[in-house]
Amino acid sequence: MASQKISKKDAFYRYHASRLRLPEEKLRPIYDDELDGKKAPDDPFEVPDKMDVFFKYSYGGQSRFFREILHHEQLLGSKCPACQKVYCPPRSACPRCYEKTEWVELPGTGKVEAFTIQHYSTSAFVKKVPFLVAYIRLDGSDFLMMANIEMDDVSRAKPGMPVRVAYRLEKSGHITDIYFQPLDE
Amino acid sequence: MRDVAIIGVGCTNFRSRHPDKTYFELAFDAAKEAFADAGIDKSDVEAAVYGIYNDFFTRQYQPDAFCHDYLGLPPIPAMRVNTGGATGGSALRAGYAEVASGLYDIVLVLGVEKCADCFDYFTKNPVPEVLRAILYTSDMTYDNPIGRTAASGFALAVLAHMNKYGSPTEEQMAKVSVKNHGNALKNPRAQSGMKITVEDVLKSPKIVDPFKRLDNCLYTEGASAVVLASRRKVADLRLKRPPIWISGLGAALDWVFPGNRESIAEFHGCRVATKKSYDMAGITDPLAQFDLAELHDAFTGTELMSYEDCLFCEPGQGGRLIDDGTVWPGGKLPVNLSGGLIGCGHAVGATGLMQTSEIVYQLRHEAGERQVPNARRGLVQSIGGTLCAWTVSLVLERID
Q1: From the candidates A55, A115, A116, which should be mutated to test the interface with B, based on the most B CB atoms within 10 A?
Q2: Cβ–Cβ gap B156/A143 under 8 Å
Q3: Chain A window 137-166: which residues touch B at a Cβ cutoff of 8 Å?
Q4: Does A26 touch chain B (CB under 8 A)?
Q5: Smallest CA–CA distance from A17 into chain B, residue
Q6: Can you spell out the DSSP letters for B23-81?
Q7: Which ranges of chain A does DSSP label H, i.e. alpha helix?
Q8: Would an 8 Å CB–CB cutoff place A31 in contact with chain B?
Q9: Contact between B175 and B322 (Cβ < 8 Å)
Q10: d(CA B327, CA B335)
Q11: Which of B5, B10, B49, B1 shows the shortest CA–CA distance to B236?
């Protein structure tokens, strides 16, 4: 049985749409001039491509931090037995004292050290704008944590504003399982 | 430690995209120009250092090895340096160490970046995908997933600085944009020379508070090369142009999770690196001793913070230097006469070397319309990473 012959253009777009897992209409008609032979011999020749690698990533010594969020909605810090400083995000060893840290429960409250409103972001987040990114001084921790704050009216955000941790209903095991809300919302 | 001079520079045009050149072809153009500028043959080069930042931009991991091949330099040794926005400065530091140590007499330092082959097929625009590629160099576990960008990191530092010191104001930041876009009009290599007003900047679309679009540098493609030589080689070569000496060099890598720092309202690492370079070069009064400076103005607010962290003034006083004319052309210490990252462009790995080439042209008195009369000494500040994690500070001098 003779295979059905498809046009050079259809073959090109079908191949790349399938390979890149992109809808074909997102690629069309970007490459039409090339495929229609309208380019001069020394014009730049462009092709679609992407780079990706799949992972089964281990959090290593930080695993318990993410497991407690996933299963118990509990925020943990890690405390150095030598200098008594508490880290969140956690560290399995204190980078100052080189001592193995111990897990401690944090109340999940804190204050906004500085925040900014993202009006633009990467292709992965461009649909979410405007959203807040902040450094938060967590109660019980000695260092700042970068995190999202979600609130009804982002224009009400202020430095020094008290916040508390909130947990997504549907969790992924990523840090985005948590975010912060104003204490009064 | 031996004295190290810059004997040749080459820099391609900085453009939003060079669709007719790959990264290694841009590198080739810059290297060829630098060899001709130094009056040497490529066979005189004993080692190379490549400053290339992002492997997604090039669609190629270990792009340095391929540059080396296309430049025809095998089998001399070469290595790649990547320290984010400070990649160009760090590459120069690595090359400096190779010459100062006595390991080699002539070293090529080449920075190149080509970002705009990244493309977001959903918005039909490279920028969101360029940003996504950049965010693979932020911390992947805690920072990347929350949608922050390089701009929001620096915005948080500027906001913390505003909370602590009451400055800079948005008007002061806008003046930096007016200055650097204006300076770029006189630089034929620059991507974005423009005559604009403070009002234009303040009214441009918000990107990340407090930065508007015209407060930001641009994504740029380009390459820049520097040829380093030992004093012995400088004496042998009978150079046509005056050698420019690296009289001071300092570097730092601060906590890359800035939450670990004492304060996010200052760039402590920058202060450490600057101090080190000043001590080495005998700089005690930068405003009096430098004729010009090229600072890493990825954002207007960070240029103002850098006036403080490069010790031009006390903390909280940076805004004063843009208000009183100090850093404008003709001022006591003009900053970013090339146009900086905002006006000339930010081709990441090439940026620190573009800044260096501007100081070299100025100290050789070859900077045309941008020339600072009788310039003898200049400063390069190359920074990168989350809230200025990396800093390289270089003092360059002409000694007749």
Answers
A1: A116
A2: no
A3: 143-148, 159
A4: yes
A5: B121
A6: HHHHHHHHHHHHHHHHT--GGG--EEEEE---HHHHT-SSHHHHHHHHTT-TTS-EEEE
A7: 8-20, 24-27, 32-35, 63-72
A8: no
A9: yes
A10: 5
A11: B5
State the angle between helix axes of B268-281 and B300-309 in degrees (0 to 180), rounded to the nearest 10: 50
Domain range B4-118+219-237, its CATH number among 3.40.605.10, 3.40.47.10, 3.40.30.10, 3.30.360.10: 3.40.47.10
> A174 vs A33, B81, B144, CA distance in Å?
43, 31, 11
Q: Which of B112, B42, B105 is nearest to B71 (CA)?
A: B42
Chain B contact residues (CB < 8 Å to A): 19-20, 56, 59, 120-124, 128-129, 131-132, 134-135, 141-143, 145-149, 151-152, 155-157, 159-160, 163, 205-210, 257-260, 264
Alpha-carbon distances of B101 from A125, B96, B98, B111, B245, rounded to whole Å: 47, 8, 5, 22, 15
- A118: phi > 0 → left, psi -120 to 50 → alpha, else beta; which? beta
Q: Which amino acid is at A33?
A: D
Read off the pTM. 0.96
Q: Where are the domains of chain A?
A: 1-52, 60-182
Quick one: pLDDT band at residue A129, thresholds 50, 70, 90?
A: confident
In the predicted model, what is the mean pLDDT of chain A? 95
Rounded percentage of chain B residues whose pLDDT exceeds 70: 100
Residue type, B64: D
Q: What is the pLDDT of residue B395?
A: 98
Residue with tokens 């920075």: B111
Dihedral of alpha carbons A156, A157, A159, A165, sign: positive
Of the candidates B240, B1, B12, B225, which has an alpha carbon nearest to the alpha carbon of residue B107? B225
Residue B164 has pLDDT above 90, yes or no: yes
Q: Please give the Cα distance from B290 to B168 (Å, whole number).
A: 23
Set of chain B residues whose Cβ sits within 8 Å of the Cβ of A143: 257, 259-260
| Whole-number Å distance between alpha carbons of B280 and B392 | 14
Q: For residues A23 and B121, what is the distance between their CA atoms, to the nearest angstrom? A: 10
Residue B82 tokens read as 């990547």
